[in-house]
Amino acid sequence: xxxxxxxxxxxxxxxxxxxxxxxxxxxxxxxxxxxxxxxxxxxxxxxxxxxxxxxxxxxxxxxxxxxxxxxxxxxxxxxxxxxxxxxxxxxxxxxxxxxxxxxxxxxxxxxxxxxxxxxxxxxxxxxxxxxxxxxxxxxxxxxxxxxxxxxxxxxxxxxxxxxxxxxxxxxxxxxxxxxxxxxxxxxxxxxxxxxxxxxxxxx
Length: 203
Prior knowledge:
By secondary structure, this protein is α+β, with helices and mostly antiparallel strands. It is built from 7 helices and 8 strands. The protein folds into 2 domains: 2-41; 47-195, Peptide Methionine Sulfoxide Reductase, Chain A.
């Protein structure tokens, strides 16, 4: 009798399991959906490009770019000199030959390089050599450091257009050079005006 009950119980369990499998099939998760969300987000991020400008004190230069739609990140640093790993003191003395610059990482689908050039021209006086307002020295020179032949062509075309338009009374003295090395400035210089409540950045 016990054997008969056990047999019937096992048979019923088997039928119940078969019913569950037939009505609730096991779902398989595709391999790409099983990846962490952070990986998917990274894969979906659009390609970005870099633009580097010298336009006087880099504190104010950074603040002019950090709120533009399409700008992903800004950093201030040193470029265009002849020594390795310069610091603020050597740049300020003029010994290193570097300029204070802002490097802008941007999404070209949202903001174009010519549009960033327009911010550059509006944000400083490109007709004064080695000077912006009261700031004197080669570290404050007007400088465009291009990252590609396309950027070089756009920068030169922009200067020519400015000369034709007579937008500035005096000739533009902005230097246009390839970017060979960018050295990030000390951390206390990054977003300096924002840290001290004198600017707000969205990026």
